[in-house]
Write a structure and sequence with these properties.
7 helices
Length: 202
């Protein structure tokens, strides 16, 4: 089955560990992962990985995408350099295409007003409150939250972040999704048998 690509935003100082589980298993499920940067110029992750974006943000169209993933980055807290990515998230959500944001990217979405009327989470509530956003009453103390096409998670929850992405896109569901989470989050070796059986049955 042909699927539209998943777009992974990349920018200087992006947190490369926050999206690895999601992108690896989306790729295994048949999704093309396309990196989108501020331009086509290379960017460098916080871990020192140099990445050549496949496309520039301005060229990304919601109609040509399955999902936009926004990782955290030091730059989210350092000014407005990444504001165009938050505006692109609004464009995606307005078009009915999902967005997944983790760690500092949630601050960008808060500033953009995208968390004012959706259940959401982040690192801690006061991290978002410092933006002056209007969604404080909708903050949920959870590993990851999905509300109307928007996934949010804190920096210590890359596995839960991936779980919500898989659920939203229908990559895994039911006991298979639960087993995947238990294996990678809890090192539950019994969960591996569930995944192996699911893969064998196609």
């Amino acid at each position: 089955m042909s699927r539209k690509p998943v777009h992974l935003a990349v920018y200087d100082t992006y947190a490369d560990w926050e999206t690895g589980h999601a992108t690896a298993y989306l790729a295994r499920a048949g999704y093309e992962i396309r990196t989108a940067g501020p331009s086509r110029e290379p960017v460098t992750s916080v871990g020192g990985l140099r990445v050549q974006p496949a496309c520039a943000l301005d060229d990304v169209r919601p109609s040509e995408s399955s999902l936009l993933i926004l990782p955290g980055a030091d730059l989210w807290d350092a000014g407005d350099d990444l504001a165009p990515f938050a505006r692109k998230a609004r464009e995606f959500l307005d078009a009915g295409v999902p967005v997944a944001a983790i760690c500092g990217a949630t601050v960008g979405l808060a500033r953009e007003g995208l968390l004012d009327d959706r259940e959401h989470t982040s690192a801690v509530s006061f991290y978002l409150a410092a933006t002056g956003y209007g969604g404080g009453e909708r903050y949920v103390d959870a590993d990851a939250v999905t509300d109307r096409g928007l996934i949010t998670a804190g920096p210590t929850e890359p596995v839960a972040f991936a779980r919500e992405i898989f659920r939203l896109l229908g990559v895994y569901d039911g006991e298979v999704l639960d087993a995947w989470y238990r294996l990678f989050h809890d090192s539950d070796t019994e969960a591996y048998a569930v995944l192996e059986k699911a893969q064998a049955s196609g």
